[in-house]
Specification:
The protein is α+β, with helices and mostly antiparallel strands. The chain has helices at residues 10-15, 28-35, 37-43, and strands at residues 2-7, 19-23, 26-27, 49-52, 55-56, 64-65, 70-74. This is MoaD/ThiS family protein.
Amino acid sequence: MSVTILFLGPLRDIAGEQLREVDGPLDWAGLRDAVGPEVAAQLDEDRVNVACKGRVLADKCALQAEDGDEVALLPPVSGG
């Protein structure tokens, strides 16, 4: 089985794809490795959130995704 990484907004443009399947389980270090250096640099920003199983993580570095989970990378939201 695998973990699905979902790239949203500008992170999708940087990654060049909307979804990526990777082997699970997946922790923070594994996520950073799986997304590549450009997206990983964005993940280091406080304004970028990570959700797992539909819930935004209070501490994204505590990510523990299991086989079958979806991890969404959430860029900052702007609006007027």
